[in-house]
Amino acid sequence: MNNPLKYLATFKFWKELLVMTGGMMIAAGAVYYFMMPSNLVLGSITGLSIVTSNLLGLAGISIKVSVIVTIINALLLMLAWVLIGKEFGAKTVYTALILGPLLELWERICPYERLMEDGASSVMGDPLLDLICFVLLVSISQAILFRINASTGGLDILAKMVNKYFHLDIGVSVTVAGAIICCTAFAINPFRMVVIGLIGTWMNGLVIDYFTASLNKRKRVCIIAKDHERIRSYIVDKLHRGCSIYDVQGGFSGEQHKEIQSLLTQDEFANLMNLIRTEKLESFITAGNVSEVYGLWNNRRRGSGGLKV
Question: Does the domain made of 217-290 have the CATH classification 3.30.70.120?
Answer without folding.
Answer: yes
